[in-house]
Specification:
Number of helices: 19
Number of domains: 1
Number of strands: 0
Helix content: over 70%
Strand content: under 5%
Shape: globular
Structural class: mainly alpha
């Protein structure tokens, strides 16, 4: 399995994902920077949708639920433990370019929306003869949702509840039923749950982390210095630590924000009155909040407050070191909420994948598969789960990034049209103001 993981999720695949994000950023003259206030405003203050439809806020909450999970706690801890503090810098870099990758995924899925294929399937199937790539992607989407979305998250719930004194077997039963019913309910049920859960858990985590950082504020400059030195120091480059930090940072960044996998695009396909650019705005914000904010906060909490630098639960060590037993309860609760949110969202993603590859014939059995995966994940070894997740992520990333590269000129055209439309709108407003003054 390790060999297969290297083939499907090695340096070449991570380079491909990053290269696509870099090319999209340069081709659009760094659209994610120039339109910063637009995508931030639209994401935080979205337009109201028609009653009875999935709102853009609910869709964004679903996408965030799918990405804000173990990657923000266990993933960042693993990145620092394996690649050192320098891995955090490369997580930021990957996230910056990943913003345009997710923008392209969401924009293209809306542009090619035919009412049948959802999310990334709508544009991947238009490459070549439209059979091999979407089929491989569908297998990866289904199995990734079961491993990374269910098993890995269920394992975190089990670990978090175990820290609170709950036996893993009991947790396995509860999380399995949650996975079953959420995947059975469809996007409307998922979005209703996540639009309540995501703001609550995000606020809980950020407020408690800010308190920790305020208490340990004298350590923040040293933490930042450690990140920069770990990424660029002569010792890191000559000793091979640079390459370990680079691979670990990019890999864990994709693990948490899913840029290059195309999964979050499915969350926006049911939004009423959607258009490519606005759904792309939501994709940019998803990556920004998930990695540029949440993972950054996690990293600084670990580097400023943890007593140790190895292991999977460094954030737990930091919180316990600062807040004592209350910190242990607090971060365990955050782990449980984050993981539950991802389990709920991934149930929808996995069912979309299985529906596509089976032509809707086997989608009804997905809730049972989700139940089984969650139960096994709760009691299985997390390292093996991560290896499986990397394999299935590769099955998604390769067809998806190749498709994004093929449609790069179209993404550039979509961005250009938006900017021309905005320029014409401003000109019309100036003309209107002149007439009003007359």
């Amino acid at each position: 399995m390790n060999l297969l993981s290297e083939v499907l999720w090695g340096y070449h695949v991570l380079f491909l994902i990053t290269a696509v994000g870099v090319k999209l950023s340069f081709s659009t003259s760094f659209f994610q920077i120039r339109h910063f206030f637009k995508w931030l405003k639209y994401s935080l203050f979205p337009c109201k949708e028609e009653k009875g439809k999935v709102s853009s806020f609910a869709a964004l909450s679903t996408a965030l639920a799918g990405s804000i999970g173990t990657g923000n706690i266990v993933g960042v801890s693993a990145a620092i433990s394996i690649g050192g503090a320098g891995a955090v810098f490369w997580m930021w870099v990957a996230a910056f370019f990943g913003m345009m990758t997710v923008f392209a995924e969401c924009a293209l899925s809306v542009h090619f929306d035919d009412g049948e294929s959802k999310g990334a399937f709508s544009y991947i199937k238009r490459i070549g003869k439209g059979k091999i790539l979407p089929f491989v992607y569908g297998i990866g989407c289904t199995l990734s949702a079961l491993t990374m979305g269910n098993m890995a998250q269920a394992n975190s719930v089990s670990e978090g509840m175990h820290q609170l004194g709950v036996k893993p077997v009991f947790t396995a039963v509860i999380i399995s039923f949650i996975a079953f019913f959420s995947s059975k309910g469809g996007i409307k049920l998922v979005s209703k749950i996540t639009e309540k859960l995501v703001p609550l858990m995000t606020l809980l985590f950020l407020v408690s982390s800010m308190v920790l950082l305020f208490i340990k504020r004298e350590n923040i400059p040293d933490a930042l210095n450690e990140i920069i030195n770990g990424a660029f120091s002569k010792e890191a480059v000559m000793g091979g630590g640079f390459y370990i930090a680079l691979k670990t940072g990019i890999s864990r960044s994709v693990f948490t924000n899913e840029a290059g996998l195309g999964s979050s695009a499915a969350a926006f396909c049911e939004v009423e009155n959607k258009n490519p650019v606005k759904m792309g705005y939501l994709g940019i914000f998803q990556v920004f909040l998930d990695t540029s904010v949440m993972c950054m906060v996690t990293a600084f909490c670990i580097l400023s407050g943890a007593c140790e630098r190895s292991g999977e639960l460094l954030l737990l060590s930091a919180f316990k070191n600062v807040f004592g037993d209350f910190g242990k309860v607090l971060i365990s609760l955050c782990m449980v909420l984050f993981a539950l949110a991802t389990v709920i969202a991934s149930g929808y993603y996995g069912r979309v994948g299985l529906s596509f590859i089976s032509k809707n014939k086997l989608s009804s059995i997905y809730p049972l598969l989700s139940f089984t995966a969650a139960f096994i994940g709760s009691i299985w070894n997390i390292d093996k789960i991560f290896i499986l997740s990397d394999i299935f992520n590769g099955l998604m990333a390769i067809p998806n990034t190749l498709s994004l590269a093929f449609f790069l000129p179209l993404v550039k055209e979509i961005c250009s049209k938006e900017e021309k439309l905005g320029k014409n709108t401003r000109q019309n407003r100036k003309i209107r103001d002149i007439f009003l003054k007359i």
